[in-house]
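Dear Dr. H.,

I hope your travels went smoothly. While you were away I took the liberty of generating a structure for the chain from your last submission, since the lab meeting agenda had it listed for discussion. I wanted you to have the full record in hand beforehand rather than looking at slides cold. The sequence, exactly as received, is reproduced here:
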Amino acid sequence: MRTLTVSLSLFLALGLVSARQQVVGTIEKNPGKPHIAVTDFRATGTIAPTLMATFNSTVQSDLQSSPLINFIPKTLYPLRIPQVPNDLAAGEASANARPAPTPGFRLADWYAAPTTANYLGIGYGAEDRGLFVVFGYFYTTAPNITDLQQAQVFGKIYTASLDQSGALDAAHRYAADILSQFGGQSLVGSRIVFVSDRTGSKEIWVMNWDGTDQRQITKYGSITTFPSVSPDGRMVAFTTYATGYPAIQMFSLDTNRKLPFYNQRASMNAFVSFTPDSKQIVFSSTAAGGAAQLYMANADGSGMRRITNSGTIEVEAKINSKTGANMLDVSGRSGLPQIYIMNMEGADVQRLSAGTGEATNPAWNPDGEHMAFAWTKGFEPGNYNIFVMDVISKDTTQLTANEGRNENPSWAPDGAHIVYASKRGRQSQIWVMNADGTGKHALTDKGSNEKPVWVNAEK
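The corresponding predicted structure, in token form, is as follows:
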């Protein structure tokens, strides 16, 4: 992120940014989700005005896709739109005001019907010294607040490159600052690792959380699949057949270079899951012959020891990154694949899924209390769909139906979004949705893409 000393003339033109950062009042007392209105920003300069459509649409998309708020449609906004703090007045209009505020320039105008916004975002863009500069403000419209400074939740300067990518970056950061007021965690900087065959063979790829900057990591020209990522966001593990047999490999996401890993020669080595400190792994292997079992090892493959001995297939282990004390896996102990939970020694085994249909692809929510998974029951029986379960109560909610074959869910770091693979026709694509099943949209459209894993922001 760049820093910038903005010229005095720019400060005078756009209004001083307040250092006040606290939300006035307590959000928890608002009935339901807060209603947010954000105006379309305008800009001065030669290039900056051409970037504002990208900035405005990105802010709107980020806010509309959040399950934390209700974004007010712009068709309900007042006709006159404020741009800078000097345009605004707090509280109700006064009969003695000289001159009276322009309708739409009072915060009370935004609180009233038909807009009924609890919060208002306004701002302005410009260019300075070859950079794209945005002044973003956020206000509470609470009618009992009569002082504009008290009403301001935050005012910040966002600087970025003077191009479309800069407009995207500034927009994501402004929207993230709004959502952070309501407990949201920014996804900016997080990435999604996935498998794609767009170059002719299955390889490991990575993209930004919003689907931009899709880049190939491996170039083996063979089957390379089952990616997983360390909790620190620095290593990706996967299985490749490039050596002639299935071998686990570790790659650094910092350098895009191979890291050392010792493989047992076996017909299957796959499904790596990292401990919360990223120093150890659990994975599936047929190293002892027979059905695949779970093994634990150091992150370089050394110190391997067996932790299950069920006599039936044990795959897709997922360590609880919140506690590090237990893990999920997919087992054939009861016939068809089902999801079980066990401690890190493979004991205290309990089945979580209902025992009907096929339940696969478990994924822990960062809260350590919920899991997403794929199941062939529920609505549209027989096809895989995405479900979420409260691991304690076993209450289950279906998130997809009649939208193709949906598999391999992975939680975003904010615990409020899920990325997954959806096959709607001949090819599979990577999709993302809110954790309540709303806001579904595709992130990929080239080749066939599958097995996404959401990566924490760079640390």
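Two observations you may find useful: The radius of gyration is 25 Å. Residues 210 and 263 are 34 Å apart (CA to CA).

With kind regards,
E. W.
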